[in-house]
Amino acid sequence: MIDFLRGPVVHLENEYVVMDVHGVGYRVFCPNPFAIAKAEGETIVYIHHHVREDAIQLFGFPTRDEQKLFRKLIEVSGIGPRVALGILSGGSPEGVITAIYQENITFLTKLPGIGKKTAQRMILDLKDKLDGIGDSIMATGLFAATSTAPAVAGGDVWSEVREALKALGYTDTELDRVWQTLKHEVFPEDTVDSVMKRALKMLYTG
């Protein structure tokens, strides 16, 4: 089984990156491919190696804790790898953990592919199984500014997103350019994480 990959990202799509590891290109599905592709040179991506009768797929994460959280999610009845990836794409990892601990069904049912019954199963199955998961997630600069609550105003969300993006090395000029477009597309229900992903995509594609 593949536990992690180390190498540069050589290709990027909306759902996955391709990493060059000693001349072999590995397609890795990620919650946020644009954040992983941002890394210059070699990067480490922690892998869940998923084998089915008709496919072998790699799912990748920037931290061990996200890898562990993904594996806990797919243990829940009704949540497969694709749904688990959608959960981590639709909500920040620490937001998902917090919602499970707080039994916040409203938050969980806003995640892609999650209905009320599945949210209830997530809480029942995982509430006592997430100890030790989350320390590196909470410390990761990319997610540190992520809010678990909906935004109340576009400018408020952008101020948090902007600080997180500056920590990743983007300049004020780049961020001002992105905001001129993005400010017309941010709505009260958007979270910091969702705006972050859109901004990263715009920054990466130019």
Q: Care to give the gist of this entry?
A:
The protein is about 50% helix and about 15% strand. With about 210 residues, the chain is α+β, with helices and mostly antiparallel strands.
Description:
This protein has helices at 33-38, 64-73, 81-90, 93-101, 105-108, 116-126, 135-139, 141-144, 154-167, 172-182, 192-205, and strands at residues 4-7, 9-12, 16-21, 24-29, 43-51, 56-61. The chain is α+β, with helices and mostly antiparallel strands and 206 residues long. A six-stranded mixed β-sheet has the order 1-5-6-4-3-2. Strand 3 and strand 4 (24-29) form a beta hairpin. The longest helix has 14 residues, at 154-167. It is globular, with a radius of gyration of 17 Å. Residues 71-90, 106-125 form the Helix-hairpin-helix DNA-binding motif class domain. Keywords: ATP-binding, Cytoplasm, DNA damage, DNA recombination, DNA repair, DNA-binding, Helicase, Hydrolase, Nucleotide-binding. InterPro entries: DNA_helicase_Holl-junc_RuvA_I, Hlx-hairpin-Hlx_DNA-bd_motif, NA-bd_OB-fold, RuvA, RuvA_2-like, RuvA_C, RuvA_C_sf.
Please name the defining characteristics of this protein.
206 residues, alpha+beta, six-stranded mixed sheet, 11 helices, 48% helix
